[in-house]
Each structure stands twice: as C-alpha cells, then as structure tokens.
C-alpha cells in the first residue's frame, strides 16, 4: 500500500496516510483556495488503495477549522468510505475536537447524522 503525506500549511491540513503504521489522519486547518484541487490526491489515494486494504481502516479528523468548500470534500471522502464500509470493509472514522470548541463538535454531530459509517466524536 502506498503512503500519502501532505505537509500542513497555514491554510491546509497535514494529511498522513501510512498503512504500515496504521495511521490515517487529516490534521489542522482546512481553508485552501481550491479545496477540490487540494483534496483530489486524497480521494485518488482512497480510490486506489482502500479496496486492497485488508485491515481495519480508521480515518481520524483533527481539524481546528474548515471552510464550506472543504466541508464538501470531507463529506465526499466520508461518503466514499461509507460505501466501502457497506460493501464489507472494516472502516471507521473518528472526529476529534477541542473540549472548548462547540462549533467543531456540532459539525461532527451534523456529519455523523448524514452517514451510515461508524463515526465517533471525541473530545481531546
């Protein structure tokens, strides 16, 4: 399985997908000028790799903030994972939020309500 790493910037999150270490995370702030272009390598990686992944796949979101165009891409990722989960793959998502960040907690709950994917909301 190939690795995918995108370094964090002021406007984009760190993306670290490493099957050898069983790490699949998107961390930081997501407000790129062109969210579709930024998230395209992630969606491409998932399309290529998730069907060959035999273990438990757990995608962790640790976002401080994301804009509406990022929200669409995040939902697209989660809907793809939901589809793979419904086909029998062992896939879950975790949504981490700061204890003081009620907005990110609410966004996590809103996203969870749209999915049939195991989705855990966790304070840190």
Question: What's a quick, concise take on this entry?
Answer:
The chain is an alpha/beta fold. The protein has helices at residues 35-49, 68-86, 102-113; strands at 4-6, 14-18, 23-30, 57-66, 91-97, 119-123. The protein has a six-stranded mixed sheet, covered by helices on one side.
Structural description of this entry:
There is one protein chain. By secondary structure, the chain is of the alpha/beta class. It has one domain. The protein has three helices and six strands; from the N terminus they run βββαβαβαβ. The chain has helices at 35-49, 68-86, 102-113; strands at 4-6, 14-18, 23-30, 57-66, 91-97, 119-123. Helix 1 (35-49) runs parallel beside helix 2 (68-86). The protein is globular, with a radius of gyration of 14 Å.
| Computed structural class | alpha/beta
How many β-strands, per DSSP?
6
Principal-axes geometry comes out as globular
Number of helices: 3
* Average pLDDT level: 95
Helix content: 25-40%
- Main sheet record: 6 strands, mixed
Helix-strand pattern: EEEHEHEHE
Fraction in beta strands: 25-35%
Number of domains: 1
Unreliable stretches: none
Euclidean distance between termini CA atoms: 30 Å
Strand order of the largest sheet: 1-2-3-4-5-6
Q: Work out the radius of gyration.
A: 14 Å
């Amino acid at each position: 399985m190939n690795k995918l790493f995108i370094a964090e910037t002021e406007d984009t999150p760190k993306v670290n997908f490493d099957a050898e270490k069983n790490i699949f995370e998107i961390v930081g702030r997501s407000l790129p000028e062109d969210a579709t272009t930024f998230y395209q390598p992630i969606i491409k990686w998932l399309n290529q790799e998730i069907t060959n992944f035999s273990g438990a796949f757990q995608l962790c979101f640790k976002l401080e903030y994301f804009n509406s165009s990022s929200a669409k891409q995040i939902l697209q990722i989660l809907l793809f994972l939901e589809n793979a989960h419904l086909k029998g793959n062992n896939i879950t998502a975790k949504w981490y939020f700061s204890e003081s960040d009620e907005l990110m907690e609410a966004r996590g709950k809103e996203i969870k309500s749209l999915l049939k994917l195991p989705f855990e909301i966790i304070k840190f």
